[in-house]
Amino acid sequence: MSLTEKFPRVELSHKPTPLERLDNVSAEFETNVWIKRDDCTGLALGGNKSRQLEYYLGQALEQGADTLLTTGAVQSNHVRMTVAAARKTGLEVEVQLEHRVDRKQREYHHSGNPYLVRLMGAKIHYYPEGEDEAGADRALEARADELARLGRKAYVIPLSNAHTPYGAFGYVDAAEELLRQLEERQISPTRFIVPTGSASTHTGFLLGMRAHGCAAPVHGVCVRRNAEAQHGRVRAKLDAVIEALGLDLIVSDDDILCDDSVLAPGYGLPSEAVVEAIKYLARREGILLDPTYSGKTFAALLALLRAGGYRPQDHFVILHTGGSVSLFAYPELVEED
Ligand SMILES: Cc1ncc(COP(=O)(O)O)c(C=O)c1O
């Protein structure tokens, strides 16, 4: 039985997502490297957010909402997929784009995710700050109040950690799904590698693994804030999810692994190593990553493999959370002929 079964959920994702062996990468490093393709969840080009949105939409529909409100960076995949989820379920949708990444290029503001948000017809608001989660959430609440005065009922999908993290439930489910796939292939995982931003993915995944008795390290790759701050965020979210699910489970602080070695120069800004990792996987396997999330996650895995010290019978499993839509916002990543 799934741990999340008693919560309302709306089906939004193609599942199970494939688990694929990266044969060329595995051959190069003489070990086994697997990729869980959560970039293939299907919702308006897919990504990890559709599993999370299944639970937010479950709440929204149960409460009789007619409009979704959410916030994120200009190139937010979460915002794109929230708009798609609203369209699929017949809800109105308004999004708030935050000034979080200092990029002036036209492509950053008009291509990739914001292009698709406009295509799907969401109303867009702008928020001048990028590091003010509580303020961004308050602005959404203020808009929800305005809509209420007009007789509408909005459901806010918040950004800050001060709310019940329904999104993390989607990654408890993903961990269960992945464990079944590993079992079918008789694979005992050595290490999982996942991105950690809002921390819903990392938290749900770690909790799902531990609740089902899998003790392999879950290596969280920081994409938004440094390891210390991210550790605190995952801790708080874990405690909230354990409580919401009514679990009798202890996950120790030492079990929360946050690696910020590929975060610089900052959120939404890829280093040389990240650009190299994106090109490496594109050219070895034909798999597309992104500069903000999955490219950083794969760069951390690549560094780990290049450092050596593992065995041929090991199995590394990276979670591909999507985001390649935003490649079009970073045209400078490839040289023109
Ligand atoms: C493609 C992609 N990967 C990873 C993440 C990080 O996931 P989480 O916010 O659950 O930590 C995001 C979040 O926006 C994302 O869009």
Describe the secondary-structure layout:
Elements lengths: L18 E3 L1 H7 L2 E6 L11 H14 L4 E7 L3 H13 L2 E7 L7 H5 L2 H7 L3 E5 L5 H17 L4 E4 L8 H19 L6 E6 L3 H12 L6 E5 L4 H19 L11 E3 L12 H14 L8 H14 L7 E6 L17
Helix pairs in contact: 2-3, 2-7, 3-5, 7-8, 8-9, 10-11
The protein binds pyridoxal-5'-phosphate.
Radius of gyration: 19 Å
In the CATH scheme, the class of the largest domain would be Alpha Beta
Percent of residues in β-strands: 15-25%
Query: So what's the oligomer here?
Result: single chain
Strand order of the largest sheet: 1-2-10-7-8-9
Number of domains: 2
Mean pLDDT: 97
N to C succession of SSEs: EHEHEHEHHEHEHEHEHEHHE
Task: Find the CATH topology of the largest domain.
Answer: Rossmann fold
Under the CATH scheme, the architecture of the largest domain is 3-Layer(aba) Sandwich
Largest sheet: 6 strands, mixed
**SS-derived structural category:** alpha/beta
Number of helices: 11
Low-confidence stretches: none
What overall geometry do the principal axes of the alpha carbons give? globular
Q: Give the termini separation.
A: 54 Å
Instruction: Give the number of DSSP strands.
Output: 10
Query: Which kinds of small molecule does this entry bind, naming each only once?
Result: pyridoxal-5'-phosphate
Instruction: Bin the helical content.
Output: 40-55%
What does this structure look like?
The relative contact order is 0.16. The protein is of the alpha/beta class and 337 residues long. The strands form 2 sheets. Strands 1-2-10-7-8-9 form a 6-stranded mixed sheet, sandwiched between helices. The model has no long low-confidence stretch (mean pLDDT 97). The chain is globular and about 65 Å long. The longest helix is centred in the middle third of the chain and has 19 residues, at 166-184. The chain folds into 2 domains: 19-47 and 164-333, Rossmann fold; 49-157, Rossmann fold. It is built from 11 helices and 10 strands. The structure holds pyridoxal-5'-phosphate.
